Queue: 3 jobs
Job 1
Amino acid sequence: MIAETTNRLFAETPLVRKKQRREWVARLIFGMMAAAMIIPLLLIIGYLVYQGAPLISWDFLTTNPVGGMRRGGIWSALLGTIWLVGVSLLIAAPIGVMAAVYLNEYARDNWFNRIINLAVINLAGVPSIVHALFGLGAFVLFARMGRSVLAASLTLAIMTLPVIIASTREALASVPRTFREACWNVGATRWQTIRRIVLPNSISGILTGVILQVSRTAGETAPIMFTGAVFFRSISEGDFFAYGLKEQCMALSMHLYTVTTQVTGAPKPLPYAIAVVLLGTVLLVNATAIVLRVYLRSRKKW
Amino acid sequence: MSDPQKLAITTRALNLWYAKFQALIDVTVDIKHGIITSLIGPSGCGKTTLLRCFNRVNERYGYVTTTGEIKLHGKNIYDDDVSLVELRKSAGMVFQRPNPLPISVYENVVFGLRIHKEGGDLKRSVLDEAVEVALTEVGLWQDLKDRLDMRATNLQLEQQQKLCIARLLPLKPEIILMDEPCSALDVEGTRAIEELMFALKGRYTIVIVTHNMAQARRASDECIFMLLGELIEHSRTEELFLTPKNPKTADYIEGRYG
Ligand SMILES: Nc1ncnc2c1ncn2[C@@H]1O[C@H](COP(=O)(O)OP(=O)(O)OP(=O)(O)O)[C@@H](O)[C@H]1O
Ligand SMILES: [Mg+2]
């Protein structure tokens, strides 16, 4: 009897078994939901590539559309998107990062800063078509930029600023406060603290956040439609500086929209091929961001 | 060694609020120069807060209000002509968790010098000497002289804490404020830090917050007991522990509060 009890010491009871079963089921369900994220991505990419494959080639990327956009490539649209994204990055990144540094490192809790925070949050909620109208009014008409790469990029920049600010603040907040305290206590000013400790330790997060946010604008159509993108333009092939800031440009997102809805008799794979290139551009930019992050992370720190 | 009557820190009717919550109530204290003063009291009684007042670091938290007077070496630190930078240089703080900066040992020690230099670069030889002097003073030089490029956050905790003390020294502080500097360390580490405190005493005024009664008894010359934001008793350490004047102090040192 006694031997029996000792042998059963620490053995599973039915209750434990029941708990384990539940644990297992919960884990399975949550895991499946997480894995489900991969499926849409693979399906989308697979379907697009399958449909668009017949058209995709190097020439497709590097020649202008011809024949009422039914034939030829997408060079002018691809270059347009690169310009729009690039210029809006150059505008939004410094402003957004500096604003975030102010909000995270300097701002005290007073009404002025609360208003700034409120503005940032609300700006993030403004629909892109409203940004488009604002861009049209402010940049195209009022500032007399006309419909141009510059006006469209500014509009995109304003649209991305709130998310850049949010992601930068997150990166800054991940630097432990003890580092800041250590600095203050040897008499470092805020700026010295930021420059010597906070920025070097958050730069990887800041950069990748900024790039990821900006790459998302590559897909925007509404804000550029009124402010700088045109249906069709032929530019010199192979020249990266074929567009000027004051000129109008084509863009992949808009080209895709045009080809699907306005052009009759376009070959069936064409919209898919454009979509593949658009997606490819975004993924390429994201991949760069990730490589950059891994590189910068490998050189740091605590 | 040093004039025992000289006062390093004095406060008069010091009150401090975190937003609406009053964390320090009418604190009046005279801390003597060149000795070790310990600050004891139950958790949340305002020890850290008081310590942070002495170099005005509390103000960095925005919603803090202070009234009353604090003087360091006779100078009111709320005077208009007081530079926070200079103030914090001369009253450095050591924290509960060692907080070396995520840079090399060498750069940690010279960090203060670098941020206070007046234009131009400091000579390498000046920096090298500062590092050797500071690390020797805290007893790390022998261990670390060949590993100065090592990332400071990879050191052992005890070494990190010593480094945090060494980091203050090149700035020639008068006062070293320590907030439970040993609570993350084991017995060996604690002893090492205490020995270091003894070595530094005399040249520096040391104020140390501790939860460890034995440490307060061993390591301090004078002792301050606080309760719920008020200063209850301040006297020589032996007196405070052997013949406390206030019954609350007696209760606390006999372990009747948490
Ligand atoms: N930054 C802060 N904001 C608001 N209240 C605070 C802040 N820091 C401390 N307090 C409050 O002030 C009181 C005193 O805190 P303080 O940290 O000075 O106590 P302490 O004596 O150091 O305690 P411990 O022994 O736990 O370190 C506590 O009630 C605490 O909740
Ligand atoms: Mg404390």
Job 2
Amino acid sequence: MKILVTVKQVPDTATKIQIRADGQGIHEEGIKWVINPYDEFAIEEALRIKEKHGGEVVVLALGPSRVEEAVRQSLAMGADRAVIVTTEGSVEPATAAHALAAICQQEGFDLIITGKQAVDDDSAQVGPMIAAGLGLPQVTVVIHLEVDEASKRLRAERELEGASEIVELPYPAVVTAQRGLNEPRYPTLPNIMKAKKKEVRRVTLESLSLPAQPWVTVNRLFEPPTRPEPTILSGDPAETAKELVRLLHNQAKVL
Amino acid sequence: MANGVLVIFDQNAGDIRHVVLEMLTVARSLGKGPVTALTFGTDAAKTLPKLAEYGADRAVFWESYTQYSSDGFSAAIAQSFPQFDADVILFPANAWGKDLSARLSEVLGAGLATDCLHLEAEASGRVKAIRPVYAGKALAEVVINTPVQMFSLRPNINAAEVHHVNPEVLDIAPSVDPATFQAVVVERKEAQTGTIELTEADIIVSGGRGMKAPENFQLLDALAAALGAAVGSSRPVADEGWVPHSYHIGQTGKVVSPTVYFAIGISGAIQHLAGISGSKYIVAVNNDPEAPIFKVANYGIVGDLFEVVPRLTEEIKALKAQQ
Ligand SMILES: Cc1cc2nc3c(=O)[nH]c(=O)nc-3n(C[C@H](O)[C@H](O)[C@H](O)COP(=O)(O)OP(=O)(O)OC[C@H]3O[C@@H](n4cnc5c(N)ncnc54)[C@H](O)[C@@H]3O)c2cc1C
């Protein structure tokens, strides 16, 4: 099986986000960049499928030169090689999906796995858009995946609100990974060394000649409303409990 | 030119989620052309009374599409799309809506803004959206540049307002045959019945590592029962298996927007706060006065949760008994 995994580099989830004064992005100084957490589940699942069925795992990434770090980490987890679509500007979901779909087509594949969403712009669009663009079926937010090579079919469990559902589909297909799918491995030292020598192909975004007009434009970023000063009670548990219920009832009027 | 709003949603045995009513209200607030509701499957037509109550001008029921298929449904919607007279499409930002909307976006060549908090029509009739990015640590004002504009709406943020109409049921029948669907749902597993879904809950009682042991969640179950609330948790206690994974709230779990969020024995790590910033009121109980949760709380009690929570439950029961 040839499996392609898309990997995005995002700010660590512990990052305090600071918006630029012009609202056109965030300050990147001091940010610790990591692999999008959901993409780690995607890489792990691809590696497990390869370990069981044989084949190749190729990582696809898109972004400025710093993304090489996330790509090398993916290779250190065990992916075989990588393709990076290079671009300095920020890229909206449709453009990212179209660029990655173009690389998928160049590469050929049996399966494409992405994270269920990237934790920076939280759009959850790229996986399904690649699928639709390439005319492939999709299953998203997957917490369990079975591959049947004989029938070339997948059976996946996907998470819903308060429920889950089983989806069956033929592959080639696109699967998006949710927390719970697996427990991603840590790279071992020998694999970190090996990863340095693995092949990384670079393709510029411009060379893919995608339409220039973005589908979605971010006019500006701004701070969420600040929360009001808190009322903090301390002392006797019975008294504070009573006072809290009184405040919620009379002041906030929510009980 | 098409100028209506198409509201697409899932239903289960004729029941629809509250977010659908919120979507209908938002759709009307845009002041555009007719609001058309589209839903699928057996019992789709049973949603009609609710659609009438919340202002859907027109309704379309595709009852022969009994099994959800992202590729099948998006192909059918795309084929029928010109008949809906719409240039705005709304979806719920739940697992179902995110799956279908992103695929349909590519199929229609229409830009999509995911998980919107607020939509507003501009003078031009185009729609401006506010959506969270970086797990709500920032908000983005976005516009769609394609002729058709798509949005998914986060549950529990917008009000649902009654607006009685008499919807016209349209007979629009796509020729896409279910036999050609590729990815098909073959089975649905419900989690525990009778529990309130966190993303739709009005009040949430949530416990963290301060709960010390799984059996102590009984304290929170009792408080939640008194309040009519749902129970959630921080990530570590779900990872430990003290509670099901579906309880996990935060940046890598569920994002919730209740009226009141009780954080009990939760420190308030940035990843947890990311999942609760849409709460109208945050109430914290923690024995550490320096816990970061107090910086975002509206109300807090500094104290031992094992002493405070049972008393809170009693006080709430007493209040409810009076009401
Ligand atoms: C990539 C990544 C993603 C993450 N995503 C999430 C996420 O989505 N959601 C999430 O929740 N976390 C997430 N985390 C973990 C997060 O960083 C914190 O570790 C976690 O939220 C802490 O959980 P907690 O508040 O329950 O535990 P702790 O931080 O240990 O806090 C326990 C609190 O209980 C209080 N306490 C103890 N005993 C008592 C008592 N008797 N009475 C009253 N108070 C008491 C303590 O004072 C303390 O404040 C993520 C971490 C990473 C690295």
Job 3
Amino acid sequence: MTAKKRIKVIMAKPGLDGHDRGAKLLARVFAEAGMEVVYTGLRQTPEMIVEAALQEDADVVGLSSLSGVHNYFFPRVVELLKEKGLHDVLVVGGGIIPDEDIAGLKKAGVAAVFGPGTRTDEIIKFIKDNISGS
Amino acid sequence: MDDLVAEVLQGSVRAMARLITLIENEDSRALYLMAALYPHTGNAYVLGITGSPGTGKSTLTDKITSVLRDREQTVGVIAVDPSSPFTGGALLGDRIRMQRSSGDAEVFIRSMATRGNLGGLARTTADIVKIMDAFGKDWVIVETVGVGQDEVEIAKTADTTIVVLAPG
Ligand code: B12
Ligand SMILES: Nc1nc2c(ncn2[C@@H]2O[C@H](COP(=O)(O)OP(=O)(O)OP(=O)(O)O)[C@@H](O)[C@H]2O)c(=O)[nH]1
Ligand SMILES: [Mg+2]
């Protein structure tokens, strides 16, 4: 019998940002694309997000930020994932992220950053094409 | 893969998380690992939390967990939510109401989708309970899917089952 692997995603809102429409929309869209999505809710610390990724054995961590905290939180999440030995987790982000910040986030280990108006099927395709071990 | 059992017994959270995935996927290569874990089970007290959707199961789980943590007990939580019968995907939202516990590294919370199983649990939930038990959790709390009238599968797995009802 073959293993019934499903893509598991943690969708998280780091920091005090209350804009959760994008994160909730994507959580639902990813579920409709056949993924198992854990939505953590608002006000997550990097430690909480990484602990969730560890316990849930996540393939993907999605970070949504619309309040300008991405330059601290996104790299910190990547760093903590590595500390915990979670090297294979794909980290993707989105929200209000100025173009000039994207190169730095990618350098820090964020695989991709998607801004307002991105088609959700584009995000799903990126995840399916880039997760490891599938 | 054999190392995984040894690592779980030594207390590796990462190994437990990965073993749970293998069992959840009903990976045939991993089934024999359960046999190796079995002698180490039987120590955890298993609490089932069930009831209609939205009655406060996750909130209660979080509260009970924090009381147990105050008593220096270790806790594993399994939170089950339904898979979509159309897409096979699932939105697992119980963690939102478990904020207090999710900041505590001694509390291991695992969200699970039913993957088509009826009765309020996934087919492999009882095995995941055993894994957390073997790992050494003093308590394992299982939150079922929000159930209707006759989903009582949890009562077979749990030592005590709590049914949460909304007043009125
Ligand atoms: C709706 C909204 C609100 C609502 C939020 C409701 C809610 N529960 O979410 C309310 C009215 C509450 C609100 C409040 C505020 N807001 Co407001 N808000 C918006 C607005 C108009 C739309 C955001 C939205 O919901 N878009 C729809 C969703 C679906 O899109 P999205 O989140 O961008 O997601 C898409 C992509 O970004 C991407 N994506 C997003 N997250 C992720 C994650 C991953 C993993 C991936 C892969 C992709 C991805 O994919 C999605 C699909 O394409 C934006 C302006 C704008 N046009 O973006 C301002 C905006 C975000 N708000 C802003 C501000 C300043 C505020 C306030 C501080 C205002 C104030 N002074 O009180 C407060 C703060 C509230 C808080 N607690 O944080 C600013 C932020 C400025 C900045 N970051 O520099 C913006 C940009 C407006 C502006 N131009 O000034 N806001
Ligand atoms: N007034 C009141 N609200 C509560 C109580 N317990 C939970 N809630 C609220 O009820 C809503 C649902 O709570 P959850 O704990 O998510 O309920 P649940 O049974 O786990 O829900 P599902 O897993 O979706 O079936 C939340 O908004 C809680 O804050 C309570 O004792 N009193
Ligand atoms: Mg719940």
